[in-house]
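Good morning N.,

You mentioned wanting to compare the apo and holo forms, so I went ahead and generated the holo version with magnesium ion. This is what I fed in:
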Amino acid sequence: EAKRQGRGMVRVFDESMDESIRFRRQIEGGLSGAIAKGELRLVYQPIVARDRLEVIGFEALVRWCSPEYGMVSPAMFIPIAEESNLIHELGDWVIDEAVKTLQTWPGQYVSVNFSPRQFRRHNFVGHVVERVTSAGVSPKRFQIEITETAIFDDVERAAETLFKLRQMGFRIALDDFGTGYSSLYNIRRFALDCLKIDRSFVDGMARERESAAIVHSIIHLGRALGMEVVAEGVETISQLQSLRLAGCSHLQGYYLARPMDAEAALTLAHAGFLADADAASEPQASS
Ligand code: C2E
Ligand code: MG
Ligand code: MG
Ligand code: MG
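and this is what came out, ligand included:
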């Protein structure tokens, strides 16, 4: 009896496996045509400086508007692209598009996400340099966002890549910081401009002393090492205020601004500051 039930369960499990594999294949197939068919878009989320909410950069985030599946989240399709060579084609499209948009802004940088496989690609440095500089863009306005996973399984090689990129003038940010396996020893060795505090810590700040303590530690670490610190996922005014008090230099999140299309980003880039957040009008003791 139990055996039969067990077999039944196995079968159900297998079917759902088939189902998910089929779905993956469909997404993979759809995605490979998506670039050529112009179904990818970039949206841009402002990164602002703490005091006057000056817009100093935008993070580029990819969207897939599929006629078949609707809006597909990058959280869904990037991991699938990452498992095939599609990630390179997709990544190149993202670089080109981000660089094109960047050229319309008066001075902000664009921050582009790179998955581990892109970062470990043969001659990654030469590849990115070529794409960015051939468009006439200064690497100083191009920030490369990587995660801890991208760098910590081959620390020596990653250190060399980051050093070269830094030498060329690129900005480097460590994304989702605190969720991976960075050791402080290696953080010190790497050439980094920016630490992005993962939004799970920002989210937990008000509820848990532990999250608040981690946020404070990252801010201090970043400052002590001369890095910019960006808090991701700022969703409420109280988070904004706590982060300001804690000395966090830069902020990003829905409370400040949602990711927006290139046209809206251009308007905001020219305005230069976020006008709307309540806290923006708060008098600053230091100024
Ligand atoms: P990420 O790089 O950590 O990007 C931040 C994510 O948090 C974005 O999700 C953004 O829309 C979202 N977010 C921003 N503010 C808030 C907030 O206040 N609350 C909440 N709950 N979420 C917020 P998105 O656009 O869905 O991207 C998900 C992930 O997909 C990114 O995480 C990044 O790892 C990856 N990704 C996005 N675009 C690209 C790309 O062009 N290339 C690569 N390789 N990966 C990308
Ligand atoms: Mg990112
Ligand atoms: Mg992040
Ligand atoms: Mg993330």
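The beta strands are 40-49, 55-66, 70-72, 109-113, 142-147, 171-177, 194-197, 228-231, 250-251.

Happy to go through it together on a call whenever suits you.

Best,
F.
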